[in-house]
Amino acid sequence: MGNEMTLDPVWDDLDKTLGQLFMMGFDGTSVTPQIRQLIQDHHLGSILLTAKNLKSAEETTKLVYELQKIAYDAGHPVPLAIGVDQENGGVNSLFDEIYIRQYPSAMGLAATGSTELAYDVAKATAQEVAACGINWIMGPCLDVLTNARNQPLGVRTTGDDPQEVSAYGVAFMKGYKEAGVATMGKHFPSYGNLEFLGSALDVPIITESLEQLSLSALIPFRNAISHGLDAMMVGGCAMSSAGLDVMHACLSEQVVDGLLRSDLKFDGVVVSECLEMEALSHNIGVGGGTVMAVNAGCDIVLLCRSFAFQQEAISGFKLGIENSMITKARVRQSLRRVLQMKSKCTSWEKALNPPGIKYLSTLQPSHTSLSTKAYNSSITVVRDKNRLLPLSNNIEAEEELLLLTPLVKPLAASAASRLLSDSVNQGSPEPAVWERSASVMSGERVFRELGRSLARQRSGRVLHTSYTANGVRPVHENLINRASAIIVLTADANRNLYQNGFTKHVSMICSMQYSAGGEKREKPLVVVSVSSPYDFAMDPSIGTYICTYDFTETALNSLVKVLYGELSPTGALPGTISQRQKLHASRQHWLVEAFNEERDAHSLDALIKTVMEGTPLNQHSELSSSSSNSFLLRHPEVLEAHFVVRNSSTQALYGFCSTYFFKSIGTGVIGALFVDPARRKLSIGHSLHNRAFRTLLQREGIKRFQLGSRLPSIFLGIPTAHGAERKRLRSWFANMGWNTALSRAVCSMVARNLSTWNPPDGMAKSLQSAGAEFDLVYGWEYAGPILDHIKTSNRQGLAEVYKLALADPSACGIIRAKRPEDGALVGTVVLYNTQSNLAEFVPAMKDIGEPTGGISSPVISPSVGEYSTLLQGLILLGMRQIKAQGCNACILDYMDGDGNFDGLSAMGFGLLHNFEEVSCDAATWTMVPPS
């Protein structure tokens, strides 16, 4: 790690060292006396440039070079780290109409469904800023958007699904690195679920516990760290939950040194939130805050622009050292980390010879086509109930089209907004009218450009006016009555509620229109969200709803292509809100037949083999050791019904679906659903799913439905090992009516090389402190207390697993944990081997290819405090037993996939298969498949 590097004697100069531990900004587009003084006299090591500093690519290259030359002439041993926020979408510090391309926001890129495209865009973005001499991108944004309604991040995140945010975060990071710039994850430990209070003096609060954070919000940070993230920004938010009371995360040793360094094993550069933020400077003071930040574990303290605060921070740091509040060892540790990062992204040779405009000119053609491709791929049609798209099918060429846009601040990233804005008379929204050759009229530049683009392609007029918090005015009503179709734009309507009200009002007017003959005729209305897709994502009353994820000109150009049918939209809402009724081709309805073992067993084996062969080599299929027998439980308390789509002439199977109804708990399960890879996208899966579901609906006593079956444990749910495939499957099941947002992670694990395995040091000792006695029992005579105990868990298939084990004493046993004082059961786990009946339904047992034992279905009493210790105890004893039987591998199936695997990893287990189990109450099922 970086902390082992030997420091050059030049760093014995304390001023030079301290300078490397600050990042500062300044106002203005040229070097100010203040920033010059900070570099020359205080040896400032890092500079943050914002939109206020950057005019064009050429001016930026000159400014960055001048800053580096000042540092070089002042005798800095290493170049400045020069950082910039270049997140794309609406957050771009550097804009240049000619040389810097515009790309979609993070969420816009997630909507494309392609991490490869995200990587390409990140690499291109970093190449452009690096050409200007910038060597550090303040990204990627790794926040999981768990509170979409009331927080400021919006489309700066990739969504609300931690695995998806993680996949795109890593793709962005790798793209930046490939272009040679340093990376910085933000905003640790997550700004995705902040509760905002009243004023700027109040700090936004994270109310989730560390345990909740680790199950969701911390996943992208953890994965980015494992892929080599260079730096991490720790936020200035407060944290308040059981056992955690932190006023500012970046000043907390518990958060930085504890959570980030110790728990997540991050040894890169930690950057504090800007200590000038009002809540922090007012409550603590910048000098004291600097000392706190360094002692908490921050390596670089950020101060954005106030020269007085910047001087106060330097003085505070020096005073902290003089007073022995900060140790020299702590300072040198941070210095090593900063120098390690700089060695990867800069050198004096590189810093004093930026590629500049010449290199940007060579990038321009390929980056322009990449920008267009990215935007075209991101536009998302969430709903088009009445098939209004393309508009040319619903409005005659000579009829008028009305565009209604909100008054919003222009984006720095919009070329048009860089021109002088015309004054807008808010009180009198007179429409701007474009003929095909008309000149530009008044209105906001970026939306006016949209109006011109819409007008350019039709002979009829496009009317355009804005709307405000004053709501629907008579002028709007007149224009709505006059136009033949209406487009309403919204931008973050959930934070600007007047937009929501205005849009709903317009929707009501459009739905109450009448034709000349007095017939009710709904007027075509298209609502376009040009920022957060959450505006109307869950509101089916808006029948045609499109999302662009930002309102740059490039995004709106792609929107025009979608509206006029020149572009078929392929974007999908990211994360768990993707339960959308996407535009489907008309579906075929295949004949679905009940599975007949005698007729179909051989064909099912052939289909399994075909699906296996159609699985990419890097995606191990859960079907690898399955056969037709694997799906047949033949269990007295489970009703099973399986279905096929087949070619009656050749007997070949095209698709298979298995269902089970567990009578004891009233749960209906779809246990497997797969289709011949050569015949996908032909609605075979839809037909099988609908038939299976109708069968389960008719089961007497049905209480809930579940995707994924513990018994047989082939698919414990939706397989989730691979990002793109996982997203495709989740999206497919969401379209079938399953609420994939309420999924639960489950997994199978495996430990190998048992012959040389020994328990981790100290584990046996810690088991003694668990306050339980363990034993191993065989046979049905022990069934009563065990079956009573497992009723504390209502998991589908548990009772059946235990009954199979109890009825098979020669090959299965139950390890029990009991309270010493009263003998009550507090934990159980099933032990089995390849000779047991249970092994038949766990294909992974055959897949390992060597003598294997299994540990299954742990149940720990909810009343137990030492859950993880008890679980580890049961598993440890199981492993010892399996090893004693001469097995060299151990399968651990049906484990909580969200759990903390550190304890199990220490015991030698690694992940085998990951799944998402999805379940819902029968009473709340919303989509009954058509008969």
Automatic annotation (TrEMBL):
SUPFAM superfamilies: (Trans)glycosidases, Acyl-CoA N-acyltransferases (Nat). It holds the Pfam family Glyco_hydro_3. The keyword Aminoacyl-tRNA synthetase does not apply. GO terms for molecular function: hydrolase activity, hydrolyzing O-glycosyl compounds. Residues 14-340 form the Glycoside hydrolase family 3 N-terminal domain. One of its GO terms (biological process) is carbohydrate metabolic process. InterPro entries: Acyl_CoA_acyltransferase, GH, Glyco_hydro_3_C_sf, Glyco_hydro_3_N, Glyco_hydro_3_N_sf, NagZ_Beta-hexosaminidase. Keywords: Glycoprotein, Glycosidase, Hydrolase. Belongs to the glycosyl hydrolase 3 family. This is Glycoside hydrolase family 3 N-terminal domain-containing protein. It comes from Cryomyces minteri.
